[in-house]
Amino acid sequence: MFHLAHQMLTLFALGATPADLLARYDQTAAYQPAPPPVDGQTVHELGDSVKFIEKLSNITYYSNCLTFVQTKDRREWRRGCGERFCFQRRRNGRYHAC
């Protein structure tokens, strides 16, 4: 799942043709693991920016974080959700980016 995305981006950056990308995708997709299942309760908890940051760095919550971000209204995300959940200054004075 994650290797495939990185491979596609790398091939694209190196100038692969659409046919090359499709061939590599078909070759690689066959052995990619399924994404982790989505847990509705966890998605709901991600509304708390501290929990969002904690879970964002754990690969087992990938599907939950992706679902949470996808369900946010794009206008809301641009107006401050991204800032609130990804770039908010923490107690130690540092920013924690996605």
Summarize the structure.
This protein is 62% helix and 0% strand.
- Count of separate DSSP helical elements: 6
Report the β-strand fraction as a percent range. under 5%
Low-confidence stretches: none
End-to-end gap? 19 Å
Average pLDDT reading: 77
Give the overall silhouette: elongated
Say how many strands there are. Answer: 0
How would you characterize the largest beta sheet?
A: none
Number of domains: 2
Question: Secondary-structure element order, as H and E?
Answer: HHHHHH
Content-based structural category: mainly alpha
Q: Measured on Cα atoms, how large is the radius of gyration? A: 17 Å
Helix content: 55-70%
For the structure shown, list the relevant keywords.
single chain; 98 residues; 62% helix; elongated
Q: Mind explaining what this structure looks like?
A:
With 98 residues, the protein is an all-alpha fold. It has two domains: 1-34, no CATH class; 40-86, no CATH class. It is built from six helices and no strands. Helix 1 runs antiparallel to helix 2 (18-29). It starts with a helix and ends in a 12-residue tail after the last helix. The model has no long low-confidence stretch (mean pLDDT 77).
Explain the layout of strands and helices.
Elements (H helix, E strand, L loop, with lengths): L1 H12 L4 H12 L10 H6 L3 H8 L5 H10 L2 H13 L12
Helix pairs in contact: 1-2
